[in-house]
Design goal:
It contains 8 helices and 13 strands. The protein is α/β, with parallel strands linked by helices. The protein has a 6-stranded mixed sheet, covered by helices on one side. Helix 2 crosses helix 3.
Length: 303
């Protein structure tokens, strides 16, 4: 859990904390993705940043496109890089399939299960918070969908509420995109998914696929899309000319409160920061009364 040493605001500490990562797109032998992107190096920097947070999350969730071609060697490299980090953090590790993944190889080489074309789904219990991994990949295609069998399974899972509610994780977000390339590859039959989750205890949806961070509402539920670790999209360009760039990589730090969920974008950058706020400053504030804290930190100086 990620908890401040003292409470200064009106909200109780978060009940659960999740690290949300997406779109690693690893290639076997760390071949440059598209001849340009060091996906293993970018993943390594992301994992180092996650460990440097000093946060002890309940789970680390990877929302799909774990590899670029579904190669066994790429899954092995991903497993070798990520599993020790999750173990050191004491966090559950949640793998979600994306359109660039291959189900049989993911089952066998990452999860240690028999190779099969069955969807990669799972239910994780984060001490009362239920996290359901869905598989929106469509074998042989890059668009997303959830077949009737998977929706029926999800309906059965959600029939009984969890103590702290449910979070869904899938690759293709049930959101519009202003980019033509992603509109073609969107999650199809979103109305069927909406029918299943509406009125249930689903509190949030984690997704990837877009390679840029965005948020929106779907069937009364907040959807949060994490940017990619491999490369991100240069949204400063006109929509028809948006392409990838080796910059702006990030992950999300998800805090689950009793009445809301926040999704903070954490940049993976090596940049200098100020040193005004630290543990000593917090201790000084903690020693003051609420009124004294406002006087010391909230009041603007006289002009």
């Amino acid at each position: 859990m990620d908890a401040a040493p003292v409470r200064f605001g009106s909200h109780e500490p978060a009940q659960r904390v999740i690290v949300h990562v997406s779109d690693t797109h690893l290639l076997a032998g760390n071949r440059p993705l598209g001849g340009a992107y060091d996906t293993a190096g970018n993943l390594g920097r992301t994992l180092a940043a996650i460990e440097n947070l000093a946060v002890r999350p309940d789970a680390v969730v990877f929302t799909g496109d774990l590899t670029d071609l579904g190669e066994p060697g790429a899954y092995a490299a991903l497993k070798a890089a990520v599993e020790p980090v999750a173990e050191r953090l004491g966090a559950q590790l949640v793998w979600v399939a994306g359109n660039h993944d291959e189900r049989p190889e993911l089952h066998r080489d990452l999860l240690g299960q028999p190779p099969t074309q069955e969807p990669v789904t799972a239910v994780h219990d984060l001490r009362g918070l239920r996290l359901v991994a869905l598989d929106s990949s469509v074998p042989g295609w890059h668009h997303g969908d959830l077949d009737d069998a998977q929706l029926a399974w999800l309906r059965e899972v959600l029939a009984e509420p969890a103590p702290l509610g449910t979070i869904l994780a899938l690759h293709h977000p049930p959101l519009p995109s202003h980019l033509p390339l992603f509109d073609i590859l969107e999650l199809r039959h979103q109305d069927a998914l909406a029918e299943v989750i509406r009125g249930t205890d689903v509190r949030g949806i984690l997704a990837g696929h877009l390679h840029y961070s965005t948020h929106g509402m779907f069937a009364g539920v907040e959807v949060s899309v994490a940017a990619a670790t491999c490369y991100t999209m240069n949204l400063a360009r006109p929509a028809a000319r948006v392409n990838g760039m080796d910059a702006g990589q990030s992950f999300h730090l998800v805090h689950v409160y009793d009445d809301t969920i926040t999704h903070a974008v954490v940049p993976v950058v090596d940049a200098p920061t100020g040193d005004f706020f630290d543990e000593e400053w917090v201790a000084r504030m903690a020693a003051l009364s609420p009124e004294e804290r406002l006087e010391a930190f909230s009041r603007k100086p006289a002009r």
